[in-house]
Amino acid sequence: MKTALVTGSSRGIGRGIADLLRESGFSVVYSGTRPERPADLPEDCDYFPCDVSDAAQRRAVLRHVSDTRGRLDLLVNNAGVAPLERRDLLDMDEASFDRVIGINLKGTLFMCQAAARLMLDGLQAGLTDYHPRIVNIGSISAYTSSTSRGEYCISKAGVGMVTKLFADRLADAGIPVFEVRPGIIDTDMTRVVHEKYERLIAEGLLPIRRFGQPEDVARMVLACASGLLDYAAGQVLDADGGFALRRL
Ligand code: NDP
């Protein structure tokens, strides 16, 4: 059975991605930092905790995938955090920078690296019907300045390069690497700024005048996982209601 690991899937976008992949026939490993499985996760879902900023925990979750499934068909690097406190760029502190970069950028980079090794081994071993893929969840913040959360923007710009690097390195082996870039999605992460974004959307910030939902992002990940987009390396899909579109 095809296996997917979705980091940060205890709630929010990652949960939406993991649920859709499961409905679509993947054997899914759900993950998050909380030690216990989320109360609303059905009993037959496999949950394994992993803080992606921690090397030992990254190794442990991948070992769990190998031990229980013997293959990793799809890695979705979704885990990500905003700064605990929004602060002007001139007041950004190093602890917040280290935290956000450690999870969003370092976590994504080294999950790609470890998963790539596992996938190359699987290809080498000749696993049946094996077409591994990686999807990184980036953000419109990769190219959009928000001076009250610079460390987040920098981390997502970095994820953009992680996608390119691994897409390049793994293309010849036949492992496509994609990036899905959400815009403004209705989750816990945007709860603190929900009213502000609601107003901006009503005023026309997005050509598609509504908040995105986790399912909007999940469907793009499923498209990447389908095999229909494989003649591409490092392709970015904007799940952003048209935010990236320049308008006059
Ligand atoms: P949420 O805050 O709603 O959920 C975050 C998820 O990540 C939770 O499952 C959480 O698990 C997990 N997580 C937090 N820290 C870590 C960590 N150190 N290691 C592993 N998992 C962790 O976020 P969203 O669902 O909104 O965001 C998901 C991704 O989408 C992120 O990468 C984010 O940057 C990106 N994104 C979101 C946008 C939005 O508008 N919401 C826009 C653009 C991008 P637990 O609760 O168990 O700790």
Characteristics:
248 residues; 7 helices; binds NADPH dihydro-nicotinamide-adenine-dinucleotide phosphate
**Which structural category do the helix and sheet elements fall into?**
alpha/beta
The side-by-side strand order for the widest beta sheet comes to 3-2-1-4-5-6-7
Report the strand count: 7
Q: Residue share in helices?
A: 40-55%
Largest sheet: 7 strands, parallel
Bound small molecules, deduplicated: NADPH dihydro-nicotinamide-adenine-dinucleotide phosphate
Number of separate helices: 7
What distance separates the N and C termini? 49 Å
Please state the overall shape, judged from the principal axes of the Cα atoms: globular
Q: Beta-strand level of the residues, as a percent range? A: 5-15%
Estimated radius of gyration = 17 Å
Order of helices and strands: EHEEHEHEHEHHHE
Quick synopsis:
This protein is α/β, with parallel strands linked by helices. It has helices at 12-23, 55-69, 94-124, 150-171, 188-191, 194-202, 214-225; strands spanning 3-6, 27-30, 46-47, 74-77, 133-137, 177-182, 236-239.
Tell me what you see in this structure.
- The chain has 248 residues and is of the alpha/beta class.
- 42% of the residues lie in helices and 12% in strands.
- It is built from 7 helices and 7 strands; from the N terminus they run βαββαβαβαβαααβ.
- The chain has helices at 12-23, 55-69, 94-124, 150-171, 188-191, 194-202, 214-225; strands at residues 3-6, 27-30, 46-47, 74-77, 133-137, 177-182, 236-239.
- Strands 3-2-1-4-5-6-7 form a 7-stranded parallel β-sheet, with helices on both faces.
- β4, α3 (94-124) and β5 form a beta-alpha-beta unit.
- Bound molecules: NADPH dihydro-nicotinamide-adenine-dinucleotide phosphate (NDP).
- NADPH dihydro-nicotinamide-adenine-dinucleotide phosphate binds at residues 7-14, 32-34, 50-53, 78-81, 103, 137, 139, 182, 184-185, 187-190.
